[in-house]
Structures are given as structure tokens and as C-alpha cells.
Amino acid sequence: MLEHTLYNPASQSKSSLIDAFVVRTKIFSEIFEIISKEDLVGDQRHYLLQGQRGMGKTTLLLRLKYEIENTESLRSWLLPIFFNEESYDLTSLSGLWEKMLKYLDEYWDTNGLYYGHTELFLDSDDYEEKCFNYLLEILTTRKKKLILFFDNFTQLFLDNLTEKEKKRFEQILGSCDMIRIVAASAIVVTNQKNYAEPLFKHFRIIPLVGLTREETLELLSSLSEKGNVKIDLVKNKAKLETLAVLTGGVIRTLMLVYEVVLADQDGSALTDLQLVLDRVTPLYKHRIEDLPVQQRRIIDVVAKQWDAMSTKDIAVHLRDDGRSISTKLISAQLQQLEKNNVIDKKETSTKNNLYQLKERFFNIWYLMRHGDRKDRRKVIWLTRFLELWYEDEKGFEVFLKRHIKLLKSGKYHAKSAILLTEALIGSKHLDILSLNKLYVATSAILTEEQRKELPDLTGKQLFGAMELYRNKDYSGAIDLLNAIEHPDQSRDILLAWNYAALGDRDRAFGVIESIETENETQTFLLSTFYQLVNDDERAQKCIDDLDHTRDDRVLEAKANFYISLDKVEKAKALYMERLNEKDSNSIGMLVDFLMQQQDYEEAEKYILLGMKVDDGFTRPLLDLYLMKDNSDESKIKALTILKENDEKFSSDPEFLVYKGLSKIFAPKDYDEHLLGDFDEMQVLEDARKMFVKGNKHGYEYYLLYYFLLMLYTEIRPSKKKATRLIEEIDDSEHNPYFILKNAFILAWNGNYSSSVEVFIKNQRNVDFEGENDQRLVSDVIMLLVLRGRYEEVATIFDSVNNLKDILKPLYFAFLDLSGQKDANEYLKMGKELEQPVKDVMAKIGKMAKTYKLN
Questions:
Q1: What InterPro entries does the database record attribute to this sequence (predicted)?
Q2: What's the rounded Cα separation, in Å, for the pair 166 and 151?
Q3: What is the mean pLDDT of the chain?
Q4: 823 secondary structure, DSSP code
Q5: N or C: which end of the chain has fewer CB within 10 A?
Q6: Alpha-helical segments (H) within 160-211
Q7: Taking the CA atoms of the chain, what radius of gyration do you get in angstroms?
Q8: Backbone torsion region of residue 695, taken as left when φ is above 0, otherwise alpha when ψ lies between -120 and 50, otherwise beta
Q9: Phi and psi based region of residue 339 (left: phi greater than 0; alpha: psi -120 to 50; beta: remaining)
Q10: CA atoms within 13 A on the CB side of 723
Q11: Is the pTM of the predicted complex or chain greater than 0.70?
């Protein structure tokens, strides 16, 4: 019922409408106070409420009418009449008087006396004037005055009048003290050529704008109090404020949102989004259809852009029968759209103003209903935003089930299904199995051509099937593998794996019999299948046939397979076969195997053997004693080695790294004399110096520099030490961590141009979509913003494709802090970004205390 009454408030009972009227109260009181007075003269005795559809114009008119009816002192002399927006019979001025006379007949139950009297005036040249004078005569006799509440005043009445009738009507409005009009219009009439200006000088025009956040909460609070199901307004305050921004405070849309929240309190953001989009379709569809063709085309361009755009940019996307459209023509149409509350103009410092859809939810609806694949990034961003909105609820699983059910019903827009699938592929809430179910359900409703627009999931499906297999979800893995559109041998083998795991040997062998392995990887997969069906003989034959003497990687893979067959000794035999007591590599492979088997006693034995060949085995021995074996005895052994070899390895940075760690892992009751009196940070610094001098780039080298850089830039910030470190690091132009730390430290030191140069020169090695790299990139930019290096920041944003979108809150924070709030780019920011931008600015403020220039 709620949705029905939203589109037709007059269908509500009088008491229900009054009870639900909790906003627009100030305007209501103001108008009611004036119309309560008997004196109806004055230049602006009439009212015109202006606002787009859904702003509450009809409800306000009805509320005023009902208040007059309920006020005894007014009922005695003032008669309210309501003409709704569907009064299609008002095509002339005389028709208005006729309709009023019919109403008076009904009101006083005259059996048609008043309207019947107009037959005396038929065929006379002054028919309209006689009808009007007769109406006034009745009112005078009855000692009544009329107040006419006229919905859709301009389109359903004024547009039908001739110029002569408009002039006559204007005279009546200015001179008659028996009739007052309170009208409503979705069309902005001020300064419009479509309407005679003298007519509107008698109206006080009141614009109805979107509700504020406070008014939104007040409205929804009232609905919740009167409803059977209560909404936790405290818990949902942030969500409702978010929707207030997205809906532009349009009452009808907000009420629809309330219905969605009421019906699905555990629903996900996307469920709510889809439900709301379905419910606002009549409102928005009507809004589009009300527009002339040329304005519809402009709306299409602006909506798909999402961010505000200039007239020139709009013109690029429009053609008229193969010819370009002038910006002057577009500007004229934009002015009309702005005055009709569809477009929002953002003034700039130049003549090139920017335009975007005024109601953001209208924009979202348009993208979801009419957007093509190019628009999916914007929808994805919105999806992420709404996911955060619901992060405290377990609604995503509920959403997915309902979404798939809706897809299966066949009543789903194909374009929306594709956009939502693309948006959800990157969602953190969906595992591969759920994603596959969504993918299959979406594919089922699409044509063959439309399926081509869906992203390729083969890689994710194979990886996901492996994960499901490991988690023993064999049916899920089978569903996932069968959904792969272009299967290969690897897919078939994995499929056989899962059939075998379910005990369906017939299907498993039916798949396997057609397979001829094409590479060593597939051979290993095939051998695993035979292992699953307990055919160890065939499994081992597959592996035995592989030549492991040419490639140590094959040897290690064979050994791992034997381990999976519980033939650890056979695996060990491979390493023993490979073992050469004078070959450190073969010893190292055996040691790694023994460590994997947690055979630390044997591992220790061969590490000690390796130490006879290569002093480098001291490191794995220390690793064994310090990291693998948690016994105090082993840690004492490590300390002993460190003590005994302190002089011998005093120039070995890898040794010193472990020496520095030894204090961290030392047993509680250790011999201080054995440990030694040293500063672990100094030891690590010594290791660093030796790495620099010896030009060593092994595991410990990078581990040390990662640790020290993190320490000196984030944990214990030291500009001097961080600068020294970054200048020493080798290969800093390929590792994204070192690249971005370098750019940060350069900016920290005030070398801004060098910072930007390093960033731009090496950006190809940075994963701007990756969370870790995004954090490091943000740190660089925020530090530059903090220092007021706005030109350098602009250069960075311009140098990386889509970086402004990837780091959108940071980009708008930069524009704000750099004094560009009036700039064209800043004006493109939607209100949904305000809080994320504030968060970024707060973080920049905190950095000021830590990263000082001097």
C-alpha cells in the first residue's frame, strides 16, 4: 500500500495523511497562516509550489485542504477544493468555472442546479465571463470564498489556455477577492517564455528542495513509530544519511527506500539498491518521458558521465543526423533542464559551467537501466560504497540468494544483470563458489551475444576448484568446473579428481580415458587422480616415467608426490640419489626436505655436513635453532654458534641479521655472558653497512631493508636514517616498495621534483590497483599535499591513468586543501564522497606532527 499511496497521496485517508505529515511543516504553517485571513487582496495572494516529482507538493496541498476542513472558524466562510494532477478535463478557462460549479452542486447537494444554470449562457460570445460572474454570485449569496488547491497547475491547465484566456485569467487573479489559488508545478515557471509573466506576478513562488539530513531522519523516525516493524534509527543513522545524499532528499524516493529497509532489514546494499531501483522506475521513467527528445539525449550523456561535465564535453557526444550540435543549443536546453530541477549547474571561475544530474539516485537508476559496459567502473565504485554502508550486517549472502532467484524468474534486465555481475566479481564478500552460482544464473538469462560481455572466469574457476577440493567441497568444485566454457586437459583432470573424491569412479574414469597429458604439470595432476582412486600403481607409474635427472624442479615435484603417497622414504631416496657431499646445492635440497618433514635431527646432521663445504650453511643452522625448534636447548645452541663464530662471521651481514634477532628469541633464563652485551639495532645497522660494502642481494639483504625502512618511516620515524637507507638500496627501481618509499623520503626531505620524477619514471612497476601499493602511493601524495606542493601532486595524478578515480577521495581532498574548491574538477564531486574526503584530510593533518621538513 505504501508504494501506491506514494504515487497517489490523495488515495490516503485524511487521518493517515495528517499523521504522516512531519516535514514541510514550516512552509505549511506559513501558507496556512496567510490563507486563514479573509482578506484575499494583494499582489501575491496566490501561491505556487515548485519542485520536481516526488518532492511532496501534492501532500502539502492536501494537508492544507484538510486543515481548513478541520478548522471550524475557517469552514464557516472558506471552501477548499482540490484538483489533482489527473484533472485532464481542464482545457479552458470556462471549463475551470464549470468544474467549480459542479463541485458546488455536489457540496451543497443541489441536484445539478448550478451547473445546469449555465445552459442559459450557451452559444453566447461571453460564455466564460457569464459563468464566472454566476460563480461569484453564488459565493456571495452563500457568504463563501473559495481556495483552490491545484496540482500540476502549469501542464494540465495553463498550457491549455489561449493567450486571450491567459490575459483574462491574469486580470481575475489580480482583482478577484473571492478565489485564492495554491498551485503546484513540476515545471519551473519563473522567467519562462512559455508562460505570460504578468500572470505569475500574482503568485508567491515557493521552491520545494530536497530534505536535509535532519528532516530525513525526522520523516523516517515518524514512519518507524507508526509502523508495525521498527527500524533501529540509531544503528542505521549513517545509512539513512547516506541515502538522503543519494536521493537528493526527494521525499517519494526516501519513502520507497524506507519500504525496502522495512521489508529487508538484513538485506545487502545491492539488494536494497535493486529493490529501490525497481520501485522508483515509474517516477524516473515519467521524468524522462516528460522531456523533449533533445533534452533526453543530453540527460543520457550527463547521466553516463556521472561526474559533472561542461557544455563542450556534452557536445562531443551528441550528433544530429550526422552533424555536430552547437554548444549554444545545448546550453539553452541545459538552462531549461536546470530550471526544471533535473540538472544541477555548478558555476566555475570561467564561463564553462559544469552540469550533472541533480538527484544522484536518478543517475544511479539511469546507469543501471541504460548504462553500457563502459559505465561499470562507476557502478562498481557505488557498489563498494554501499557495501561499506552494510559492513555491520551479514546481508550479502541473503542478497545473492534473492538476486539469483530473481534471475531465474526471467524478470531481470539483461544489462543490469551484466553490470551487477561485473561489479560483484571483485567483491570481498563473494567466494568463488558463490561467484560461480551468480555467473551461471546470469548466463542463463542472456543471449549468446550478451554472454560475450561477461568477463572470463576460467582462471578463477580453476583456482577456485582447487581450493574447494582442498576444502573437500567436491560437489561445489564439480559445479565450478562444469561451468567453464572452454575446458582443457587441466580442467578435465581436476573434474576427474572430484568425481573420484565423491566415489563416482565411473564418471571419473570416463573423463580420464580421453586425456593425453601435454606437459609435466598435467602428468602430476593425472597421477594425483590415480592416487585418489587408490590406484597407486598407475599413480606411481605416471611419476616414475618422468625424468628427474635433468631438472631439480621435477625431482622435487616427484618427491612431493611420493610424500603424498606416504612413501617418504622413496622421496628421501630421490634426494639421497641426488646428494653429493661436495655439492652444496644437493645438500641444501636434502636439508629443505628434512626441515619440511620436521626431521630436525637429520636436518641438523646434513646442515653440519654442508658447513664443511660452505660456511653459508650457518644461516640455515641458525634458522633451525632460532625459528624452527622452539626448545631453549636449540636457542642456546644458536647463541653458542653466534658466540663461537662472532669473530669469524663478524663481517658477514647475513650472520649479523641473525645475531640481531638472537636477543628477540633468546630464552628467558639465558647466560648473559653467552648472549653478549650488544645493541641489536646497532648489529642490524652493522649488517646494513656490510651489505652495502659487499654488494650482497640475498634473502637477508631485502629482509633487513624492508624491516629498517618500515621502522624508520612508520614505527620510529627518522628522516636521516630513512634517507641513508633508501640511498643504499640496490634494485630500488624495480621493487614497488622501494620505489614508493624512495619517493616518500625524497618528499620528506623537500626534494619534491625528484620525488615526482622517481614516481613517474618507475610507475610501470607499481600496482596501483593493489592495496599495499595504493597505501604507499597515498602516503607520497599526502606528504606532498601537506607540504603545499600542489603542482607536483597534480603532475602525479595526471601521469597515471585513472589514478584520480582509484584514489578519488584523496584527489578531492587535494583540490580542497589546495584552494580549488571552486575549480571545475572539484565541483564534480558527489556528496557521497564528503565523508571519505574528510577522513583523508584528517589523516594529512596527523602527518604534520611527524613528517616535518626540518
A1: P-loop_NTPase, TPR-like_helical_dom_sf
A2: 18
A3: 79
A4: S
A5: C
A6: 163-175, 197-200
A7: 38
A8: left
A9: alpha
A10: 12
A11: no
